[in-house]
Write a structure and sequence with these properties.
There is one protein chain. This protein is an alpha+beta fold. The chain folds into two domains: about 80 residues, Beta Barrel (OB fold (Dihydrolipoamide Acetyltransferase, E2P)); about 160 residues, Recombination protein O, C-terminal domain (de novo design (two linked rop proteins)), CATH 1.20.1440.120. Helices cover about 35% and strands about 20% of the residues. The protein has seven helices and eight strands, in the order E-E-E-E-E-H-H-H-H-E-E-E-H-H-H. The longest helix is centred in the last third of the chain and has 19 residues. The chain is elongated.
Length: about 240
């Protein structure tokens, strides 16, 4: 195995380690999710400090280690400046990062997932952030093997135009199979649109406040059922989003 390797990767998490060091979790185009330590990065004279910021996309040079690799060089190639300029957008990006960290397996590359993540971080500059969030959630579920189906009842398979959100099932059920939160035809249409759409077309979807709220309930249940836990940054986002 070569001592050095390179990575094109986005920083999705960082924790302090010892005096002056940080361990970063990256999502690499060719590596998937991986972690490495940046020694001395918290010191003012560190050349890495300005580049290794949460959410940056970097060209990295790393050294293989026995238990933890080390970042030897880093150059930020994309900083997504809109995320630093608007606090609400940074909340959305933080949620995306937490979701990716939770769903992605260690060292399992997925070029489509990397492209999706890069696309939504850029998309926060121009697209409706709430709808882009629903788009990301649905695409992430699909790429992670939890493909949502909003055309048929999750219990009996019957075609549906409306239905109910029921925590007993991983999807929408018809009136014959259960009750719960009522999911309107407008909501199912919007979910199907986002499931089959591209990020650049997200803002073309026009919805009312009720539909937006119901879409959020659906994706929240699907994500928490898939992860079998609550997502911390989603609670913050729901409380503080504009």
């Amino acid at each position: 195995m070569e001592k050095y390797y390179t990575a094109d990767a986005i920083i999705i998490k960082g924790i302090n380690y010892g005096e002056g060091h940080r361990i970063f979790t990256f999502y690499g185009k060719d590596q998937g999710k991986f972690s490495a330590v940046a020694r001395g990065v918290k010191k003012s004279k560190s050349k890495l400090n300005g580049h290794l910021q949460l959410g940056n996309r970097c060209d990295l040079q790393l050294i293989h280690g026995k238990s933890l690799d080390t970042v030897s060089q880093a150059v930020a190639k994309e900083t997504y400046p809109h995320l630093r300029e608007t606090a609400s957008l940074y909340f959305y990006a933080s949620y995306f990062m937490e979701l990716l960290n939770d769903f992605a397996a260690e060292r399992v590359p997925d070029a489509a997932l990397f492209q999706l993540f890069d696309t939504v971080l850029k998309g926060l500059a121009d697209e409706d952030p709430a709808k882009l969030t629903r788009f990301f959630e649905l695409k992430l579920l699909a790429l992670s093997g939890y493909q949502p189906n909003f055309h048929c009842c999750a219990a009996c398979g019957q075609e549906i135009k409306a239905g109910f959100l029921n925590p007993r099932f991983s999807g929408i059920v018809c009136s014959k199979c259960g009750g719960g939160y009522e999911i309107t035809p407008k909501t199912l249409f919007a979910l199907n649109y986002l499931t089959s759409s591209e990020a650049r077309l997200v803002s073309r979807l026009k919805t009312d406040a009720v539909t937006d709220q119901l879409m959020g309930k659906v994706t929240k249940m699907l994500i928490e059922n898939s992860l079998e836990k609550k997502v911390k940054s989603l609670e913050i986002l729901n409380r503080d989003q504009v």
